[in-house]
């Protein structure tokens, strides 16, 4: 059965208000009303849109809010592909975040239809906590990344609020998963990831790592 959160992601009205109304408030919520998550996000966005000829995969791209931003920086044959399983989110992406070097595809993040070793950068932001079986998505990220490629994840982590009694269970009923501190990094380590860097900000975590260059 679909969780309330999954139903929301398939709602056409929600897909329209997500980028401007929901995402900024939700981002702020991860740092309990402070600016730390928004600050990290700003720096990450600047890095992701740096000029260059890269192949980038944006998993669970939603309405393409990062996809388009990345596309703007790409040069030469650089391309970004945004994938998501919600048709309304993808329709909004095409309507509002089209760009020359961006394309969108309807895909389940558990079965990404690209060959091994295809992308310089693979990102999955604000999505793993909505996916009922999220860790195999990390396996897919690692598989499609090129040797030496960068993986970037933003997701939840057990913080001051979610560790209060009952909060995690309630969140789970809504379809929102709270990860233990070492769950994401542990899986990436098991996959052989190198240079794992985890930044914890209250209820959120950014994890960056690289696929081994010899892989
Ligand atoms: C909250 S939005 C995140 C959008 C964007 N990445 C961002 O950072 O703002 C989460 C997205 O994950 C997508 N999603 C959830 N489960 C998925 C799955 N199994 N495969 C592909 N996309 C999925 C939803 O449809 C939704 O568009």
Briefly characterize the structure:
This protein has 215 residues and is an alpha/beta fold.
Structure explained in plain terms:
The structure is a single chain. The protein has a single domain, classed as Rossmann fold (3-Layer(aba) Sandwich), CATH 3.40.50. It is globular. The mean pLDDT is 96. It has a seven-stranded mixed beta sheet with strand order 3-2-1-4-5-7-6, sandwiched between helices. β6 (194-201) and β7 form a beta hairpin. α6 packs across α8. It is built from eight helices and seven strands. It starts with a helix and ends in a 5-residue tail after the last strand. The chain is α/β, with parallel strands linked by helices and 215 residues long. The site of S-adenosylmethionine has 19 residues, from α4.
Total separate domains: 1
Mean pLDDT value:
96
The beta-strand count equals 7
End-to-end distance: 38 Å
> Main sheet, how many strands, which sense, barrel?
7 strands, mixed
Q: What is the SS-derived class?
A: alpha/beta
User: Helix and strand string, N-terminal first?
Assistant: HHHEHEHEEHEHHEE
Bulk shape: globular
Predict the CATH topology: Rossmann fold
Share of residues in strands: 15-25%
Give descriptors for this structure.
Rossmann fold, alpha/beta, seven-stranded mixed β-sheet, globular, 39% helix, binds S-adenosylmethionine, 215 residues, 8 helices, 23% strand
